[in-house]
Write a structure and sequence with these properties.
The structure holds 3 protein chains of 3 kinds.
Chain A lengths: L4 E10 L3 E11 L4 E5 L6 H9 L7 E10 L2 E2 L5 H6 L2 E4 L11 H6 L11 H7 L1 H5 L10 H13 L5 E5 L7 H18 L2 E6 L2 H7 L2 E6 L2 E7 H6 L1 H6 L26
Parallel strand pairs in A: 3-8, 3-9, 6-7, 7-8
Antiparallel strand pairs in A: 1-2, 1-4, 4-5, 9-10
Chain B lengths: L12 H5 L5 H20 L2 H26 L7 H17 L5 H20 L7 H26 L5 E2 L4 E2 L2 E2 L3 H24 L1 H11 L1 H6 L4 H27 L1 E2 L6 H14 L4 H25 L4 H23 L3 H15 L11
Chain C lengths: L7 H11 L1 H6 L4 H26 L11 H10 L7 H18 L4 H16 L15
Helix pairs in contact in C: 4-5, 4-6, 5-6
The chains are: A alpha/beta, B mainly alpha, C mainly alpha.
């Protein structure tokens, strides 16, 4: 079965000099939530940007590997082409248009062919936004901004949602609600989600499978049960420690680094 | 991005603060100094004049680099500062004050005051708005200069006699060459040291994010104004130099295109880098002559028809090409070449081994 | 920068102007939007140039008059299309008055003096939207 999104041995280089991610391969099946975990600087955001073509002003490029969406190669495509094909990104920063109102933010969307949700359904998922329709997006709180970002991404009628750091800067209760909402979207709309998260506990609570990224390489992957069982993941990503000495995760070589050479 | 190898360790404060730190750089600098000193013996007056022009442009470019490259304040009024310096000198000469010992400090003062005036809008405006504000100031200065010229300058402009200090008169290509190159070197050292100083760091912080700069205690208003004042004082002095060197001052020489040229210099050279300002200045100054030679080489007869549009067109085209393909400018190209050698035989810096 | 708030097309242009990358990720063909904007601007500028040249004189240095467009746009308000006409009339009136009652040399400066005054007292122009959020 071909997965909805497939990355094969992707390598991204910044400024033509510094490698950000190397040999990254992952698959996101239909109707599933896949978590991509890692610390700061591991390369998670770079991976998402490589998929969505979102590099912008950074001098970054995909120098090796293949990114395929529904079997079609999309490596190096421009962002609006990727978005219209149904692969939509909710970015980490700059996620809403601050000088436009909430309603205008939801208008500023050009969707592909599918019909996933309508405006009314979106307001049902996010009642807060319905209340604040005419407010400038720059004046929304963090949680509301994240909801607006999700809402406008949904109005792009996606098949796969790439979510970058959903929980960043939000209170735990808000994070819980948003994660539950993501699961609702998968259940009710059949949406697939690639969830990039530093908050491993919150992500693994809703995900079906996960990948762990360290220093630009995938070091572990599997179903959520498999991830939750691994003692290093429990110690370093979930904070369920087993030893009292301070150990750095880079010193522990428990992971078998999986790297494809062809 | 610099991929600098290891092996360079300093063992004293002097070594740490030194401008020229490696043996290779010292050797290269010594070689350059030798070439520059010996150039009058080796080259013709035409070449000397070219280098003098490039050195003069470098002074103005370095000043603009401090304002736009370091402090991030977009300024389209550079030609106005040059004009202010030149016309202050002209005004003083008209009233009989000829000695550079008086005109230069006066020019610096006028430049500083003008810089303050132009800098005040920068406290409230940014980006496009600031650029337009400085453009407006440019027109105001040129209007005042035009008024002065129409009233006192005998309609076409002012003549400035050669500068005389004590018994020495500054005249002739060789003498001006030495003076301009020395002054450009001085301006370069000043610019590099400014970049490493507290003011330079404050400016770079303001350029990157002024709200964050204010939150770590940098007095944003004071440093924005000081960037304008520094830049305008040096540029006004360059304008005075221009007046003495050319011997003739008129408003037509300071049109908007001059400001565009200086901005092109720092962009082509590399924004924010003193070396870039010098390289860009040399590049932009020598470009018209290169095009002359190219067009004449290709077809000597049609030369006089195509030279003028070719110069303008090539100038714009090159700016666009640099902005598209190498936004870091000539310095960016230099750094890439250097990285290639430093990383060889690898192509990329490796990921951290974990 | 917003052009028209009622038309979703206008919102698309406005969003592309503010955050091109995000707009691109929401399916808006930002390249197309920018190309269209430049084309419209070039067309309007060319038209203005033709009118001026047929009225006064055709010469290469005509281009420098284009800079005054900045003054007019700013006085009217950078994000207000409707504000352009009143602003243009105002700036032209100031220029003609300054030449007539002042000094002929003032013709170059007066649009920019208007610009400076606007920047000092009301940077968002006569008809622009005042927003505390930074747009530049």
């Amino acid at each position: 079965m071909t997965a909805l999104l497939e990355l094969e041995n992707v390598e991204v280089v910044y400024h033509r000099v510094a490698i950000a991610v190397q040999g990254v391969s992952l698959r996101v099946p239909e109707r599933s939530i896949v978590a991509l975990l890692g610390t700061n600087g591991a390369g998670k955001t770079t991976t998402l940007r490589a998929v969505s073509g979102f590099f912008g002003g950074d001098d970054a490029r995909v120098v090796a590997g293949r990114i395929a969406f529904r079997g079609e190669v999309i490596t190096g495509r421009r962002p609006h082409e990727v978005a219209r094909r149904g692969l939509v990104l909710v970015p980490e920063r700059d996620k809403v248009f601050e000088t436009l109102t909430v309603a205008e933010n939801l208008d500023a969307v050009v969707a592909g062919g599918r019909r996933l949700v309508s405006r009314e359904q979106v307001f049902e998922y996010f009642p807060v936004l319905a209340e604040r329709r005419r407010q400038l997006a720059g004046y929304l709180s963090g949680g509301e901004r994240q909801m607006l970002a999700l809402a406008s991404a949904l109005l792009c009628q996606p098949e796969l949602l790439l979510v970058d750091e959903l929980s960043l800067g939000l209170a735990p209760s808000v994070v819980e609600r948003l994660m539950a909402l993501v699961r609702r979207l998968r259940d009710e709309l059949g949406l697939a989600v690639l969830l990039v998260e530093q908050n491993a506990a919150a992500a693994l609570a809703v995900a079906d499978a996960g990948y762990v990224l360290e220093h630009g390489r995938i070091v572990y992957d599997g179903s959520v049960e498999r991830l939750l069982a691994h003692e290093d993941i429990r110690e370093f990503y979930l904070g369920v420690g087993r030893s009292t000495d301070r150990v750095r995760y880079t010193d522990v070589k428990q992971y078998r680094r999986r790297r494809r050479w062809f | 991005m610099r991929a600098r190898g290891g092996g360079y360790f300093t063992t004293s404060y002097e070594a740490d603060l030194a401008l020229v730190d490696t043996r290779l750089r010292r050797a290269a600098l010594a070689a350059l100094a030798l070439v520059l000193l010996g150039l009058p013996q080796l080259a013709s007056g035409f070449v000397l004049d070219l280098v003098s022009q490039a050195a003069f442009a470098a002074i103005g470019a370095l000043a603009l680099n401090v304002l736009t490259g370091l402090a991030g304040q977009i300024s389209l009024g550079h030609a106005g500062f040059l004009a202010a310096g030149a016309f202050t000198t002209a005004a003083l000469v008209e009233r009989g004050v000829v000695s550079p010992l008086v005109t230069l400090p006066a020019t610096a003062l006028v430049g500083g005051v003008l810089g303050l005036a132009v800098g005040i809008p920068s406290l409230r405006l940014k980006g496009l708005y600031l650029a337009l504000g400085t453009l407006a100031m440019h027109h105001v200065v040129l209007y005042a200069a035009g008024e002065m010229q129409a009233r006192a300058g005998g309609n076409t402009g002012f003549t400035i006699p050669a500068p005389r200090v004590g018994g020495l008169v500054l005249k002739g290509t060789v003498a001006w060459y030495y003076v301009l190159v020395a002054l450009a070197a001085l301006a370069l050292v000043l610019a590099v040291n400014l970049q490493r100083s507290r003011a330079g760091r404050a400016w770079m912080a303001i350029r990157d994010r002024d709200v964050a700069a204010a939150s770590v205690g940098i007095d944003v208003a004071r440093y924005k104004l000081s960037a304008f004042v520094w830049s305008s004082v040096v540029t006004a002095l360059a304008g005075a130099l221009f007046a003495y060197h050319r011997g003739f001052v008129s408003v037509e020489a300071f049109g908007f295109f001059v400001a565009v040229e200086y901005i092109a210099m720092i962009i082509i050279g590399g924004l924010g880098s003193a070396l870039g300002a010098v390289l860009g200045a040399a590049f932009v100054t020598l470009l018209p002559y290169a095009i002359d030679a190219l067009v004449a080489g290709v077809s000597p007869d049609a030369a006089q028809y195509y030279v003028f549009p070719a110069k303008f067109g090539a100038f714009g085209l090159l700016m666009a090409l640099f902005l598209l393909f190498e936004p870091l400018g000539l310095v960016g190209i230099w750094r890439r070449v250097r990285n290639w050698f430093a990383l060889w035989p690898f192509r990329h810096r490796p990921l951290r081994a974990s | 920068m917003r052009i028209s708030t009622t038309n979703s097309n206008g919102v698309g242009i406005g969003s592309a102007g503010e955050r091109a990358l995000l707009a691109s990720q929401r399916g808006i063909n930002v390249h197309g939007v920018f190309a269209l904007s430049w084309a419209l601007a070039a067309f309007a500028g060319g038209l203005a140039g033709m009118i001026y040249a047929s009225n006064v004189r055709l010469e290469p240095s005509l281009g420098i008059l284009g800079l005054r467009a900045f003054a007019v746009a700013l006085v009217g308000g950078l994000d207000s299309l409707g504000g352009v006409i009143p602003a243009a009339l105002l700036v032209a009136a100031v220029e003609v008055a300054s030449v007539r009652y002042g000094n002929p040399l003032l013709s170059d400066v007066s649009p920019f003096l208007c610009l400076l005054v606007m920047l000092l007292i009301r940077p968002w122009g006569l008809f622009g939207t005042k927003e505390e959020l930074e747009r530049v």
